[in-house]
Automatic annotation (TrEMBL):
CDD domains: PAS (cd00130). InterPro entries: PAS (IPR000014), PAS-like_dom_sf (IPR035965), PAS_fold_3 (IPR013655). This is Aerotaxis receptor. It comes from mine drainage metagenome. The keyword Transmembrane helix does not apply. The keyword Repeat does not apply. Residues 6-76 form the PAS domain. SUPFAM superfamilies: PYP-like sensor domain (PAS domain) (SSF55785). Gene3D superfamilies: PAS domain. Keywords: Receptor.
Length: 172
């Protein structure tokens, strides 16, 4: 079910010892969420379970970041990222996330496991600047070319810094 939520400027800040944990199936449907996820998202457990994980997607997040994340985890790799999430009441919270695929005994991907913690402020500042440029490129390019345009901004930044995506995210 798609909910229309108006983003606000109210920020919620994770505590140092918080870990937001969730699991999804291969389609991104939430199958598990811990109490910290429930607290920060503002949704109840019944509202979260069975919903798409993008229920907490903030409109300030470029689509290309999620494409990168999905490409990595579907390629059996872990992904680290700074993500701005939106709670049910429109407030937002930044996380530093690690998403990994889960496997059955035969080695098939069965879902994804995500652990989020309080991000470094320097990382949030860097990610905010990069994401704003990526979002602007997405808007200018239009829906059909948004991800490619946004990805080019990210690639150019990485090339300029001489870093891979993972190196950048872990360094900021």
């Amino acid at each position: 079910m798609k909910r229309h939520i108006t983003p606000t400027s109210v920020e919620r800040v994770m505590r140092e010892d918080d870990f937001i944990v969730s699991m999804t199936n291969t389609k991104g449907i939430i199958t598990y969420c811990n109490r910290i996820f429930i607290e920060f998202s503002g949704y109840t457990e019944p509202e979260l379970l069975g919903s798409q994980h993008n229920i907490i997607r903030h409109p300030d997040m470029p689509r290309a970041v999620f494409k990168l994340l999905w490409d990595k985890i579907q390629n059996r790799e872990e992904c680290f990222a700074y993500v701005k999430n939106m709670a049910k009441d429109g407030s937002f919270y930044w996380v530093f996330t690690n998403v990994t695929p889960t496997f059955d005994p035969a080695g098939n991907i069965t879902g994804y496991f995500s652990v989020r913690r309080k991000p470094k402020q320097s990382g949030v500042q860097t990610a905010s600047t990069v994401y704003a440029a990526m979002l602007e490129a997405e808007r200018k390019a239009g829906a059909a070319n948004a991800i490619a345009a946004s990805n080019k901004i990210l690639t150019d930044i990485l090339n300029e810094k001489g870093l891979s995506y993972d190196e950048l995210v872990l360094a900021i």
